[in-house]
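For consistency, the fold was encoded as C-alpha coordinates, which produced the following:
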Amino acid sequence: MSAEREESLRAFLSRAGWGEAALMPLPGDASTRRYLRALKGERVAMLMDQPLGAESPPCPPEASEETRRALGYNAVARLAGADCARFVAVAEFLRGRGLSAPEIYAAEPEHGFVLMEDLGERLYADVLLAGADEAQLYRSAAEALARLHAAPAPVMLSPEKPLYAYDETAMLAEIDLMTEWFFPVGLSRPAHEDEVAEHRALWREVLRPVLEAEAVFVHRDYHAQNLLWLSERREAARVGLIDFQDAVAGSRAYDLISLTEDARRDVAPELAEATTGAYLAAMRRQGTPRDEETHRAEMAVAAAQRNAKIVGIFARLYKRDGKPRYLSYLPRVWGYLNRDLEHPALAPLKAWYDTKVPPECRGEPRLEGMNA
Protein backbone atom coordinates (compact mmCIF):
# COMPACT_ATOMS: atom_id res chain seq x y z
CA MET A 1 0.00 0.00 0.00
CA SER A 2 1.34 3.43 -0.92
CA ALA A 3 2.15 5.99 1.75
CA GLU A 4 -0.63 8.20 0.38
CA ARG A 5 -3.20 5.39 0.64
CA GLU A 6 -2.03 4.55 4.15
CA GLU A 7 -2.46 8.18 5.19
CA SER A 8 -5.96 8.29 3.68
CA LEU A 9 -6.90 5.06 5.46
CA ARG A 10 -5.66 6.33 8.81
CA ALA A 11 -7.55 9.58 8.37
CA PHE A 12 -10.76 7.60 7.72
CA LEU A 13 -10.23 5.52 10.85
CA SER A 14 -9.64 8.66 12.87
CA ARG A 15 -12.88 10.20 11.65
CA ALA A 16 -14.65 6.92 12.51
CA GLY A 17 -13.28 6.96 16.08
CA TRP A 18 -10.78 4.17 15.43
CA GLY A 19 -7.67 6.27 14.87
CA GLU A 20 -5.43 4.26 17.19
CA ALA A 21 -6.55 0.84 16.00
CA ALA A 22 -3.98 -1.81 15.20
CA LEU A 23 -4.53 -3.36 11.78
CA MET A 24 -4.04 -7.01 10.85
CA PRO A 25 -4.24 -7.78 7.09
CA LEU A 26 -6.29 -10.83 6.12
CA PRO A 27 -5.48 -13.20 3.23
CA GLY A 28 -6.51 -11.86 -0.16
CA ASP A 29 -8.82 -13.39 -2.74
CA ALA A 30 -9.40 -12.97 -6.47
CA SER A 31 -10.59 -9.36 -6.15
CA THR A 32 -8.84 -5.99 -5.87
CA ARG A 33 -10.26 -5.41 -2.39
CA ARG A 34 -8.38 -6.14 0.78
CA TYR A 35 -9.61 -6.65 4.32
CA LEU A 36 -7.93 -5.76 7.59
CA ARG A 37 -9.01 -6.61 11.12
CA ALA A 38 -9.02 -3.44 13.25
CA LEU A 39 -8.24 -3.89 16.97
CA LYS A 40 -8.82 -1.12 19.51
CA GLY A 41 -8.65 -2.35 23.08
CA GLU A 42 -11.29 -5.05 23.34
CA ARG A 43 -13.17 -3.76 20.30
CA VAL A 44 -12.81 -5.49 16.96
CA ALA A 45 -13.99 -4.38 13.54
CA MET A 46 -13.37 -5.23 9.90
CA LEU A 47 -11.96 -2.66 7.49
CA MET A 48 -12.55 -2.98 3.76
CA ASP A 49 -10.08 -1.12 1.57
CA GLN A 50 -11.24 -0.88 -2.06
CA PRO A 51 -8.85 1.31 -4.05
CA LEU A 52 -10.79 3.49 -6.46
CA GLY A 53 -9.96 2.97 -10.10
CA ALA A 54 -8.64 -0.54 -9.49
CA GLU A 55 -11.46 -2.02 -11.57
CA SER A 56 -13.48 -0.95 -14.57
CA PRO A 57 -16.57 1.12 -13.70
CA PRO A 58 -19.79 -0.49 -12.49
CA CYS A 59 -22.97 -0.20 -14.50
CA PRO A 60 -24.78 3.16 -14.29
CA PRO A 61 -28.59 3.08 -13.88
CA GLU A 62 -30.60 2.35 -17.03
CA ALA A 63 -27.49 1.98 -19.20
CA SER A 64 -28.02 0.43 -22.62
CA GLU A 65 -26.23 -2.75 -23.65
CA GLU A 66 -24.02 -0.67 -25.96
CA THR A 67 -23.05 1.67 -23.09
CA ARG A 68 -22.37 -1.27 -20.79
CA ARG A 69 -20.09 -2.90 -23.32
CA ALA A 70 -18.21 0.36 -23.83
CA LEU A 71 -17.63 0.62 -20.07
CA GLY A 72 -16.14 -2.86 -19.76
CA TYR A 73 -16.80 -6.22 -18.17
CA ASN A 74 -18.02 -5.00 -14.77
CA ALA A 75 -20.78 -2.98 -16.41
CA VAL A 76 -21.74 -5.75 -18.82
CA ALA A 77 -21.87 -8.45 -16.13
CA ARG A 78 -23.53 -6.20 -13.51
CA LEU A 79 -20.57 -6.30 -11.10
CA ALA A 80 -20.13 -3.66 -8.42
CA GLY A 81 -16.50 -2.95 -9.21
CA ALA A 82 -15.08 -0.49 -6.71
CA ASP A 83 -18.54 0.76 -5.64
CA CYS A 84 -18.40 0.57 -1.83
CA ALA A 85 -21.75 2.32 -1.58
CA ARG A 86 -23.36 -0.74 -3.15
CA PHE A 87 -21.75 -2.98 -0.52
CA VAL A 88 -23.22 -0.77 2.21
CA ALA A 89 -26.67 -0.76 0.58
CA VAL A 90 -26.72 -4.55 0.26
CA ALA A 91 -25.57 -5.03 3.86
CA GLU A 92 -28.33 -2.82 5.17
CA PHE A 93 -30.93 -4.52 2.96
CA LEU A 94 -29.94 -7.97 4.25
CA ARG A 95 -29.95 -6.86 7.87
CA GLY A 96 -33.41 -5.43 7.32
CA ARG A 97 -34.54 -8.94 6.35
CA GLY A 98 -33.29 -10.38 9.64
CA LEU A 99 -30.14 -11.89 8.13
CA SER A 100 -26.61 -11.62 9.47
CA ALA A 101 -24.75 -9.24 7.22
CA PRO A 102 -22.16 -7.06 8.99
CA GLU A 103 -23.39 -3.90 10.69
CA ILE A 104 -21.82 -0.87 9.03
CA TYR A 105 -20.02 1.33 11.56
CA ALA A 106 -18.66 3.94 9.15
CA ALA A 107 -18.28 4.28 5.41
CA GLU A 108 -16.68 6.70 2.97
CA PRO A 109 -17.44 5.17 -0.43
CA GLU A 110 -15.92 8.18 -2.16
CA HIS A 111 -12.56 7.11 -0.68
CA GLY A 112 -13.11 3.35 -0.88
CA PHE A 113 -13.31 2.58 2.85
CA VAL A 114 -15.90 0.72 4.93
CA LEU A 115 -15.59 -0.10 8.64
CA MET A 116 -17.97 -2.83 9.71
CA GLU A 117 -18.84 -5.49 12.22
CA ASP A 118 -16.39 -8.39 12.37
CA LEU A 119 -18.42 -11.59 12.07
CA GLY A 120 -15.45 -13.66 13.20
CA GLU A 121 -13.39 -16.41 11.62
CA ARG A 122 -15.80 -19.35 11.56
CA LEU A 123 -16.10 -19.62 7.81
CA TYR A 124 -18.18 -22.56 6.67
CA ALA A 125 -15.16 -23.86 4.77
CA ASP A 126 -13.04 -23.89 7.93
CA VAL A 127 -15.54 -25.28 10.43
CA LEU A 128 -16.55 -28.00 7.98
CA LEU A 129 -12.90 -28.95 7.57
CA ALA A 130 -12.69 -29.15 11.37
CA GLY A 131 -15.56 -31.63 11.47
CA ALA A 132 -18.74 -29.53 11.85
CA ASP A 133 -22.06 -31.12 10.95
CA GLU A 134 -22.40 -30.61 7.18
CA ALA A 135 -26.09 -31.39 7.13
CA GLN A 136 -26.87 -28.78 9.81
CA LEU A 137 -24.81 -26.03 8.22
CA TYR A 138 -26.13 -26.61 4.72
CA ARG A 139 -29.70 -26.89 5.95
CA SER A 140 -29.33 -23.56 7.76
CA ALA A 141 -27.88 -21.94 4.65
CA ALA A 142 -30.81 -23.24 2.59
CA GLU A 143 -33.30 -21.91 5.15
CA ALA A 144 -31.61 -18.49 5.10
CA LEU A 145 -32.09 -18.45 1.33
CA ALA A 146 -35.76 -19.31 1.75
CA ARG A 147 -36.11 -16.35 4.14
CA LEU A 148 -34.51 -14.13 1.51
CA HIS A 149 -36.78 -15.51 -1.21
CA ALA A 150 -40.03 -14.95 0.67
CA ALA A 151 -40.59 -11.78 -1.36
CA PRO A 152 -39.74 -10.73 -4.93
CA ALA A 153 -36.54 -8.82 -5.57
CA PRO A 154 -36.68 -5.17 -4.51
CA VAL A 155 -36.37 -2.55 -7.21
CA MET A 156 -34.11 -0.45 -4.98
CA LEU A 157 -31.63 -1.52 -2.30
CA SER A 158 -31.53 2.03 -1.00
CA PRO A 159 -32.75 5.41 -2.30
CA GLU A 160 -29.54 5.67 -4.35
CA LYS A 161 -28.82 2.08 -5.35
CA PRO A 162 -31.05 -0.06 -7.58
CA LEU A 163 -30.82 -3.84 -7.56
CA TYR A 164 -29.85 -4.61 -11.14
CA ALA A 165 -31.43 -7.45 -13.09
CA TYR A 166 -29.26 -10.47 -13.76
CA ASP A 167 -30.24 -10.10 -17.39
CA GLU A 168 -29.40 -11.85 -20.64
CA THR A 169 -26.57 -9.43 -21.39
CA ALA A 170 -24.88 -10.22 -18.08
CA MET A 171 -25.35 -13.97 -18.29
CA LEU A 172 -24.12 -14.21 -21.88
CA ALA A 173 -21.08 -12.08 -21.02
CA GLU A 174 -20.27 -14.60 -18.31
CA ILE A 175 -20.57 -17.65 -20.54
CA ASP A 176 -18.38 -15.87 -23.13
CA LEU A 177 -15.54 -16.32 -20.62
CA MET A 178 -15.56 -20.01 -21.51
CA THR A 179 -14.74 -19.41 -25.18
CA GLU A 180 -12.56 -16.34 -24.58
CA TRP A 181 -10.34 -17.71 -21.80
CA PHE A 182 -10.72 -21.46 -21.37
CA PHE A 183 -10.30 -22.36 -25.03
CA PRO A 184 -6.77 -20.86 -25.26
CA VAL A 185 -5.78 -22.43 -21.93
CA GLY A 186 -7.55 -25.77 -22.10
CA LEU A 187 -7.57 -26.44 -25.85
CA SER A 188 -4.40 -24.53 -26.77
CA ARG A 189 -6.25 -22.54 -29.40
CA PRO A 190 -8.61 -19.57 -29.58
CA ALA A 191 -12.30 -20.15 -30.17
CA HIS A 192 -13.41 -19.51 -33.74
CA GLU A 193 -15.98 -16.79 -34.37
CA ASP A 194 -18.61 -19.31 -35.44
CA GLU A 195 -18.04 -21.32 -32.25
CA VAL A 196 -18.53 -18.23 -30.11
CA ALA A 197 -21.70 -17.31 -31.99
CA GLU A 198 -23.16 -20.82 -31.78
CA HIS A 199 -22.32 -21.08 -28.07
CA ARG A 200 -24.11 -17.81 -27.36
CA ALA A 201 -27.13 -18.73 -29.47
CA LEU A 202 -27.58 -22.04 -27.65
CA TRP A 203 -27.30 -20.35 -24.27
CA ARG A 204 -29.74 -17.61 -25.26
CA GLU A 205 -32.39 -20.26 -25.95
CA VAL A 206 -31.68 -22.27 -22.79
CA LEU A 207 -31.72 -19.22 -20.52
CA ARG A 208 -35.09 -17.89 -21.65
CA PRO A 209 -37.30 -19.67 -19.04
CA VAL A 210 -34.95 -18.69 -16.21
CA LEU A 211 -34.89 -15.06 -17.30
CA GLU A 212 -38.69 -14.97 -17.54
CA ALA A 213 -39.24 -16.34 -14.01
CA GLU A 214 -40.05 -14.02 -11.09
CA ALA A 215 -36.80 -12.57 -9.76
CA VAL A 216 -35.55 -12.59 -6.17
CA PHE A 217 -32.47 -11.18 -4.46
CA VAL A 218 -29.41 -13.18 -5.60
CA HIS A 219 -26.24 -12.98 -3.47
CA ARG A 220 -24.27 -14.38 -6.45
CA ASP A 221 -21.39 -15.92 -4.46
CA TYR A 222 -23.26 -17.93 -1.85
CA HIS A 223 -20.78 -20.65 -0.90
CA ALA A 224 -18.63 -21.99 1.92
CA GLN A 225 -15.95 -19.28 1.60
CA ASN A 226 -18.52 -16.50 1.96
CA LEU A 227 -20.70 -17.89 4.75
CA LEU A 228 -19.88 -17.88 8.46
CA TRP A 229 -21.36 -20.14 11.12
CA LEU A 230 -22.70 -17.94 13.95
CA SER A 231 -23.90 -20.71 16.24
CA GLU A 232 -24.83 -18.32 19.05
CA ARG A 233 -27.53 -16.69 16.92
CA ARG A 234 -30.94 -18.10 16.10
CA GLU A 235 -32.58 -19.54 13.00
CA ALA A 236 -31.61 -17.86 9.71
CA ALA A 237 -29.37 -15.36 11.53
CA ARG A 238 -26.93 -18.19 12.31
CA VAL A 239 -25.63 -17.84 8.73
CA GLY A 240 -23.26 -14.89 8.40
CA LEU A 241 -23.13 -13.30 4.94
CA ILE A 242 -20.16 -11.55 3.34
CA ASP A 243 -18.88 -10.65 -0.16
CA PHE A 244 -22.34 -9.76 -1.41
CA GLN A 245 -21.65 -6.48 -3.24
CA ASP A 246 -22.33 -8.04 -6.66
CA ALA A 247 -25.91 -8.98 -5.76
CA VAL A 248 -28.53 -8.90 -8.51
CA ALA A 249 -32.17 -9.77 -9.10
CA GLY A 250 -32.39 -13.23 -10.61
CA SER A 251 -33.40 -16.87 -10.31
CA ARG A 252 -34.32 -18.55 -7.02
CA ALA A 253 -32.11 -21.44 -8.11
CA TYR A 254 -28.85 -19.50 -8.48
CA ASP A 255 -27.64 -19.16 -4.90
CA LEU A 256 -28.71 -22.69 -4.03
CA ILE A 257 -26.50 -23.91 -6.85
CA SER A 258 -23.63 -21.71 -5.66
CA LEU A 259 -23.91 -23.51 -2.33
CA THR A 260 -24.30 -27.07 -3.58
CA GLU A 261 -21.90 -26.98 -6.54
CA ASP A 262 -19.06 -25.23 -4.74
CA ALA A 263 -15.98 -24.70 -6.90
CA ARG A 264 -13.61 -24.86 -3.92
CA ARG A 265 -14.88 -27.87 -1.98
CA ASP A 266 -16.54 -31.15 -2.80
CA VAL A 267 -20.25 -31.30 -2.04
CA ALA A 268 -21.54 -34.86 -2.16
CA PRO A 269 -24.62 -35.40 -4.33
CA GLU A 270 -26.48 -36.69 -1.25
CA LEU A 271 -25.74 -33.48 0.66
CA ALA A 272 -26.73 -31.36 -2.35
CA GLU A 273 -30.02 -33.23 -2.61
CA ALA A 274 -30.74 -32.88 1.12
CA THR A 275 -29.98 -29.15 0.92
CA THR A 276 -32.32 -28.71 -2.03
CA GLY A 277 -35.00 -30.59 -0.10
CA ALA A 278 -34.46 -28.37 2.95
CA TYR A 279 -34.89 -25.26 0.79
CA LEU A 280 -38.09 -26.50 -0.83
CA ALA A 281 -39.48 -27.52 2.57
CA ALA A 282 -38.68 -24.10 4.05
CA MET A 283 -40.37 -22.40 1.11
CA ARG A 284 -43.50 -24.48 1.73
CA ARG A 285 -43.50 -23.75 5.48
CA GLN A 286 -43.38 -20.00 4.95
CA GLY A 287 -46.22 -20.08 2.40
CA THR A 288 -44.16 -19.52 -0.76
CA PRO A 289 -44.05 -23.04 -2.25
CA ARG A 290 -42.21 -23.81 -5.47
CA ASP A 291 -43.19 -26.26 -8.17
CA GLU A 292 -40.44 -28.82 -7.72
CA GLU A 293 -40.07 -29.83 -11.36
CA THR A 294 -39.82 -26.20 -12.46
CA HIS A 295 -37.34 -25.43 -9.70
CA ARG A 296 -35.09 -28.36 -10.57
CA ALA A 297 -35.07 -27.38 -14.24
CA GLU A 298 -34.05 -23.84 -13.22
CA MET A 299 -31.33 -25.32 -11.02
CA ALA A 300 -29.89 -27.30 -13.92
CA VAL A 301 -29.73 -24.24 -16.17
CA ALA A 302 -28.38 -21.96 -13.42
CA ALA A 303 -25.79 -24.56 -12.48
CA ALA A 304 -24.54 -25.04 -16.03
CA GLN A 305 -24.37 -21.29 -16.64
CA ARG A 306 -22.52 -20.66 -13.39
CA ASN A 307 -20.05 -23.49 -13.90
CA ALA A 308 -19.33 -22.50 -17.50
CA LYS A 309 -18.61 -19.00 -16.21
CA ILE A 310 -16.33 -20.28 -13.43
CA VAL A 311 -14.32 -22.40 -15.85
CA GLY A 312 -13.69 -19.23 -17.84
CA ILE A 313 -12.92 -17.11 -14.78
CA PHE A 314 -10.40 -19.59 -13.40
CA ALA A 315 -8.69 -19.79 -16.79
CA ARG A 316 -8.58 -15.99 -16.88
CA LEU A 317 -7.13 -15.81 -13.35
CA TYR A 318 -4.34 -18.07 -14.57
CA LYS A 319 -3.71 -16.59 -18.01
CA ARG A 320 -4.24 -12.88 -17.37
CA ASP A 321 -3.58 -12.50 -13.66
CA GLY A 322 -0.82 -15.08 -13.11
CA LYS A 323 -2.71 -17.12 -10.49
CA PRO A 324 -2.17 -20.77 -11.48
CA ARG A 325 -3.68 -22.19 -8.27
CA TYR A 326 -7.15 -21.65 -9.70
CA LEU A 327 -6.51 -24.24 -12.39
CA SER A 328 -6.49 -26.95 -9.72
CA TYR A 329 -10.23 -26.32 -9.19
CA LEU A 330 -11.13 -26.99 -12.81
CA PRO A 331 -11.59 -30.79 -12.53
CA ARG A 332 -14.22 -30.25 -9.83
CA VAL A 333 -16.03 -27.52 -11.78
CA TRP A 334 -15.99 -29.55 -14.98
CA GLY A 335 -17.34 -32.49 -12.99
CA TYR A 336 -20.30 -30.37 -11.93
CA LEU A 337 -20.78 -29.03 -15.45
CA ASN A 338 -20.70 -32.52 -16.97
CA ARG A 339 -23.45 -33.55 -14.57
CA ASP A 340 -25.48 -30.39 -15.19
CA LEU A 341 -25.43 -30.96 -18.94
CA GLU A 342 -27.20 -34.29 -18.52
CA HIS A 343 -30.51 -32.50 -17.81
CA PRO A 344 -32.87 -32.74 -20.82
CA ALA A 345 -33.26 -28.94 -20.90
CA LEU A 346 -29.57 -28.68 -21.76
CA ALA A 347 -29.38 -31.34 -24.47
CA PRO A 348 -28.36 -28.95 -27.31
CA LEU A 349 -25.58 -27.49 -25.16
CA LYS A 350 -24.38 -30.94 -24.14
CA ALA A 351 -24.02 -31.83 -27.81
CA TRP A 352 -22.02 -28.63 -28.41
CA TYR A 353 -19.65 -29.24 -25.49
CA ASP A 354 -19.23 -32.91 -26.46
CA THR A 355 -18.13 -31.76 -29.91
CA LYS A 356 -15.98 -28.77 -28.98
CA VAL A 357 -14.40 -29.73 -25.63
CA PRO A 358 -13.24 -33.38 -25.60
CA PRO A 359 -13.50 -35.21 -22.25
CA GLU A 360 -9.72 -35.26 -21.83
CA CYS A 361 -9.69 -31.43 -21.91
CA ARG A 362 -12.26 -31.04 -19.16
CA GLY A 363 -9.93 -30.78 -16.23
CA GLU A 364 -6.68 -29.18 -15.15
CA PRO A 365 -4.89 -28.16 -18.36
CA ARG A 366 -1.50 -29.52 -19.31
CA LEU A 367 0.55 -26.35 -19.37
CA GLU A 368 3.81 -27.47 -20.91
CA GLY A 369 5.00 -24.95 -23.45
CA MET A 370 2.20 -22.48 -22.70
CA ASN A 371 2.75 -18.83 -21.88
CA ALA A 372 1.17 -17.47 -18.70
